[in-house]
Amino acid sequence: MERNHTIMQFFEWHLEADGKHWRRLAKLAPKLKDRGIDAVWIPPPTKAVSPEDTGYAVYDLYDLGEFDQKGGVRTKYGTKEELLEAIAACREAGVGVYADLVMNHKAGADGTETFQVVEVQADNRLEEISEPFDIEGWTKFDFSGRGDAYSSFKWNFEHFNGTDCDAREDRNGVFRIVGDGKRWNENVDDAFGNYDYLMYANIDYHHPDVRREMIEWGKWLADTLDCAGYRLDAIKHIDHTFVREFTEAMYADRGDAFFIVGEFWNSDPGACQQFLEDVGGRISLFDVRLHYNLHEASEQGADYDLTKLFDDTLVQSNPTNAVTFVDNHDSQPGEALESWIADWFKQSAYALVLLREGGYPCVFYGDYFHIGGDEEEIEGKKMAIDPLLYSRHYKAYGEQEDYFDDPQLIGWVRRGVADIERSGCAVVVCTGEGGEKKMYVGEHRAGEEWVDFTQTRDDKVVIGEDGYGSFPANGGSVSVWALPDPV
After folding, report:
1. Could you give the 3-state DSSP secondary structure of residue 362?
2. Mean pLDDT across 7-26
3. Alpha carbons 397 and 144: distance in angstroms, whole number
């Protein structure tokens, strides 16, 4: 029987810019596989505005750390050669690689151009606050360090529909570019009136040459890396008709097994379902609503109603399209979408993501290893997460039954499958003062002695003749009960 699949987001925002990250991945790939992690989401591999940039201020999509541009050859994470070696090491270990694609904007232009714009309100991009006027904008991309290698396409202001800087007046704003057919893309999130524009020089997906070039690049990148899939950044800002066209082209090029997950940062379940329908229903989305529910639970503690934890989540409505996660680089402390799950609840949150039937869970590098930075480092929680990864790989299989009948004490069982010996588990999450849950695991389990794989409890639960066990959990913690493996 096929084992459960698990992703690791293999980076956090404050990774040291030492150019050694691809080498770290190559070294760790076999160990990740041993933990049951069989896919990694890597940071943007493309050349950004500097060797220190995380990759989201993307400059040249065809430079994977090969050309001397923007202050060096390598990216923050290493050279192209090291990237390809890391992917090969992952493949040998049985770990798929999902590359992060930044397709909404470009940064670090090689020169300025003069063109007409209208300034719009930052909080309502549909409201114009000026007549058309000339600006000097950073929109000229020549890629002199790369030349015409891999692509001869050069970008200019015609390929963008907005920018944020007038170099002539040395001032910032949101400037919509004026011209034939120039407008914001309509099929985007409706925050701020129209949320096509996010930052830097905004790519215009009305332009047929742009659509063609970006699809050709997407196929080139997948073929060059021979990767297993893509993570698409900030897709609520990109015309969803292009997202559909792009993803269908990738499936046609790489096959149906190619995995694509989009960052559609919207906690409205209706919006997520509509977006999935608009793009053809084949891609996955990160379950942002579940993340926020977990965050609220960690903030409110015993006052949070755990029975409603999965209400309005993507994993509840679209379990096969949901990538579930606890935290990521955007939600970590100090970042734009900070909503960090409190330490006391972190292990419980991972149990709720890793040990349930629905969703494709993603473990955050910053949670597992550590978070760096100049301010306050955060220690990794490997010791808390490893037992859950083990339980996911060996125990969390079969029919699921929920016991969500107490706002401070919830549980569920996985009944196990015949093909995986000693599989099956019972999970109890408690935010109150502690308690136990009587749950049914099957008459065929009668007499078995189950232990807590988190090692929070050192007692044993004996399964009764009726197939029930009374599974305890300490206050503010989680216990994962299962039949121990032979020593």
Report:
1. strand
2. 97
3. 54
Assess whether 465 carries a catalytic annotation.
no
* Catalytic residue check, 233: yes
Each residue of 62-119: pLDDT tens digit? 999 999 999 999 999 999 999 999 999 999 999 999 999 999 999 999 999 999 999 9
Q: How many CA atoms lie within 13 A of 75 on its CB side?
A: 31
Q: What is the pLDDT of residue 358?
A: 96
pLDDT tens digits for range 458-470:
999 999 999 999 9
The per-residue DSSP string of 463-476 comes to PPTTSEEEEEEETT
Do 169 and 109 meet the contact criterion of CB atoms below 8 Å apart? no
Q: Which of 66, 166, 263, 452 is an active site residue? A: 263
Task: Tell me how crowded residue 421 is: count the other CB atoms within 10 A of its CB.
Answer: 11
User: What is the Cα–Cα distance from 13 to 69, expressed in whole angstroms?
Assistant: 22
Main-chain phi, psi angles of 155, to 5 degrees:
-95, 140
Question: Residue holding tokens 């270990």?
Answer: 93
The β-bridge partners of 107 are none
Largest CA distance in the chain: 82
β-bridge partners, 409: 430
Long-range contacts of 217-223 (CB under 8 A, 24+ apart): 217/61, 217/62, 217/151, 218/101, 218/246, 218/249, 218/250, 219/249, 219/250, 219/253, 220/62, 220/150, 220/151, 221/61, 221/99, 221/101, 222/99, 222/250, 222/253, 222/254, 222/258, 223/253
What's the start-to-end Cα distance of the chain, in Å? 23
Residue of 53, 119, 164, 233 with catalytic role: 233
| Residue 242 in tokens | 């292009």
DSSP assignment string, 403-433: E---TTEEEEEE---TTSTT--EEEEEESSS
Q: Which two tokens stand for residue 365?
A: 């590098």
Cα–Cα distance, 376 to 372 (Å, whole number) = 7
Question: For residue 183, what are the β-bridge partners?
Answer: none
Predicted TM-score (pTM) of this structure: 0.97
Asked if residues 72 and 194 have their Cβ atoms less than 8 Å apart, the reply is no
Any residues with CB less than 8 A from the CB of 161 and at least 6 apart, and which?
Answer: 176, 177, 182, 183, 184, 185, 196, 197, 202, 203, 204, 206
Question: How far apart (Å, rounded) are the C-alpha atoms in residues 315 and 390?
Answer: 22
